[in-house]
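Deliverable D4.2, example record:
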Amino acid sequence: MAVGEGVIENPLKGRDNGTTSLLPSFSYYGDRFFVSNLTVGYSLLEQKNLYVDLVVRPNEDGIFFQLDRDDYTMASLSNILGSNGGAFGWTPENISRDISAVAGPSATFVTAPVDISFAYFHDITKVHYGSETHLSFDKQYPLFGGAFAWSLGAVQKDADLVHYYYHLRPEEAGRFAYSYTRQFPPDDVTDRYARVQFAYPLGKRFEFKLAAKFNQFDLDGRNPLLIEKPETLSWFAGIQYSIGGDR
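Output generated by the structure prediction step:
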């Protein structure tokens, strides 16, 4: 459990950022099965320079629609159903979308200069029937007696996923929904991100943690009327207390 200050900037128009002073985290790694926060996986292959897993995780886009709710401040996954809005007009605050779970294979190649990860995930909850493909470059180094890590990545999301989360429905925008679709046709998008993390031990179970992530959202396949901040910066700084078998 970490105590400090954290902000998740919300790219959606008319939606509040997510803020928290508590950041719980949980992980379990067995011979094959593992859990890391909201990600669940099963190891298919584990070698010195190659890891292959099957992974289930929540889709990030659905969480953006729930950040202004208190029960989602720490990434709660309670069920959210339905949508509402005016028949001949809409406001961003009145749009609801479900959170989906996606699953698929993930492979990581471990090399001296950088670790390369590739993953393909498909919706298994029948929310949008879409898919997303992840590519990332990561590495961790010792620094000032602690550990510093960086990551550069890109996520390609297909048109089905984009249409569900980032386009308007007739019950939300009435006759204007079709006009918006013609003006901004749904298409695949490629979002990019950069992330840095630093941890410094303060004792046997305490450490200082600092993390930040910069996101750049591709607007080409989205309805830009739903996006207020195509570039966001999310961060957390605080003190973490850890318990577990490795301590």
